[in-house]
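Posting here for the record, re: S-adenosylmethionine.
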Amino acid sequence: MAARAEIIFMRDRYNREINYMRISVTQACNFRCIYCQPNPSSQTASSLLTRDELVCICRQAVRLGITRFKITGGEPLLRPDVAQIVRDIKAIPGVGQVTLTTNGFLLKEKLEELAEAGLDGINISLDTLQETRFREVTRVDGLHQVLEAIEESRKRFPTKLNVVLLKGINEEEWLDFIRFGKEHGVIVRFLEWMPLGGSKTEQTVDNRELIKLLREREPNLQKLKPKTPIASDAEKQTFGNGPAEYYYLPREKVWVGFISAMHNRFCENCNRIRLTATGELKGCLCYAKQDSLREILSDRGLTDNRREELIHKKLQKVIYEKPLMHHLENQEKTTEKSTMKDIGG
Ligand code: SAM
Ligand code: SF4
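Prediction output follows.
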């Protein structure tokens, strides 16, 4: 680890400590999930940040106290150098955790490389356990590959399953997922769908309703105590540092997580910024506002020191100006019109 004195633990103007960055490494995806890409023909082809550029940005982020990184996309495993990206970010002095989120389709063949690169954990997105429905939701025939990848992943990494429940599509599978999590030794988390990319909110399953149903089945449902400001390493490994709330089901003897962007606004504790695959920094998913690093990165007239200084300043600005909260419940205030795939989910 670098000497602590070199790192400023930066807070935004609402006094939130920002210590986490989600990095999209591609906008391409081999799935076309109906809720993420409602209009799959709009595949974008823009120039991606190179590995060196990504690492340069991360180095400056670490100096500002961002020590945890999530590699995402699009589908990050489509990027041939994804393991090298992980390795290079892990090698930056001061970096704590580098984790990755994937649809799992290509994961099995990449696991060894990712483990060697030092990856700290994997989130696999899986929205249904039924083969036909999997094809309908993702528009790909791949449930078998993803299930195999989950089995292999959990042998090497702390592995979580992210499930988006949609009304009228897969909402009744919630109990099947909880049981699947127990049987396969992975923590399942239910993510509320967010109306991005111009979609409407009717599909969102309210996690509060789900918790109510769980409480009816398990009256002794236990909520994990609120996170202490400095979570232990074991807590971080198991529960991460994100907005998920975790409940223990004493009867089923299993933990379940809920990420409730729509019905339990967690903005007060939001600790993250985002970097898109094309070099835009974003303080919040909900808004079109972004600060580009493109010009700085492509200006050949800059010395390396000056470039780093400018990136540092831009990161400081984005952290400081991070919006107070999202307004995803309000279509007019949701100025971001891109999908999660393009922003980096
Ligand atoms: N392709 C990778 C995957 O599926 O994990 C990484 C990118 S994907 C955009 C990251 C996460 O965002 C996935 O768990 C996906 O289910 C979720 N997601 C996509 N669109 C969403 C939406 N509109 N609301 C909530 N979650 C969404
Ligand atoms: Fe599905 Fe992830 Fe691809 Fe979106 S980015 S279509 S959620 S696999």
